[in-house]
Amino acid sequence: MTPLETLGLTLLHRSDPERAHTMAMRALRLGLVPSPGPFTSPRLATQIAGLELPNPVGLAAGFDKNAEALGPLSRAGFGFIEVGAVTPRAQPGNPRPRLFRLSEDRAVINRFGFNNKGMEAARAKLAGRPSEAVIGLNLGANKDSDNRAEDFARVLSHCGPHLDFATVNVSSPNTEKLRDLQGAEALSALLAGVMEANSWLKAPLPIFLKIAPDLSDTEISEIGEVALGAGLSAIIATNTTLSRDGLQGPASQEAGGLSGAPLFAPSTRVLAKLSRATDGKLPLIGVGGIGSAEDAYQKIRAGASAVQLYSALVYKGFSLAGEIARGLDARLEQDGFAHVSDAVATGRDEWL
User: Fold this and answer.
1) DSSP code per residue over 43-65
2) CATH pick for 35-351 out of 3.20.20.80, 3.40.50.720, 3.40.630.30, 3.20.20.70
3) Contact 142/150 with Cβ under 8 angstroms?
4) Annotated catalytic residue, options 74, 145, 172, 267
5) Which of 7, 31, 87, 73 is nearest to 310 (CA)?
6) Is 267 one of the annotated active-site residues of the chain?
7) In which residue ranges of the chain is pLDDT below 50?
8) Domain locations in the chain?
9) What's the confidence (pLDDT) of residue 81?
């Protein structure tokens, strides 16, 4: 972390968390954060679902909900970027306060509820995206929708021409009954509609699915089967958790999804189980609690072909993306891996 980042984070942490996030977005657009571009090497450059990535370290959805900082984010060191979630119609989300720092736990709790400006605003921003970056969109459904499956398809149809991939998000805990769509029957029907909408695009996209960490072994296996049968290109594991095990921070019992360091172990166990269930037939993207190169390396060895992070940026700044990529490159070399893909799932059994 640079001295300027340290100062900036100190000042941001004196503000309300959501206001601090708005200020961080403004700093990005003003060019006040490091912009080294993505670190790459022959060991890190990889392909996921047909996408050529300079490195496998991505930005998770949720930071840039409305695709408003695509240029700065593409230069911040990430190998790929996911924005959103975006819903068909704009919606305000849940009442404030709805974002909480747990500094003692290096964690965050949010109950935003898919606040965003809607697919029309997102499409306008995505139309001006940097062409050299790999950019995906997290698809959401409106809170008051009577057909959430149709919502996912609508956002995909509207914004798809400006994307490199899209993610079906059925794992946010902050939209009532959304996680019910992870059941095998409901998920199969939902994905069938999304894949049909995808086939209508002039250039169909890789479609990813983002799942929750709060799943049984049976549910994980069922999701793996459905994903393979639906023709998905990857699964992102995982979203935030409802668990509050072992937390110390004063805001630890706030309602919402928990992310950050406490999520690392449970999300990695789900990742490893999903890797076993899909038997390497589908790329997995590991998310949850990544705050260092070693964390990213452990996710990869548990079964991930790429990783994403978000919450750790709250505590370590945007330099973290490049630090993780460089550290991952060194760690792979240290253990004798010629390429990141060679390390995938080599430590999976340690998490089962």
Assistant:
1) TT-EEETTEEESSSEEEPTTSST
2) 3.20.20.70
3) no
4) 172
5) 73
6) no
7) none
8) 35-351
9) 98
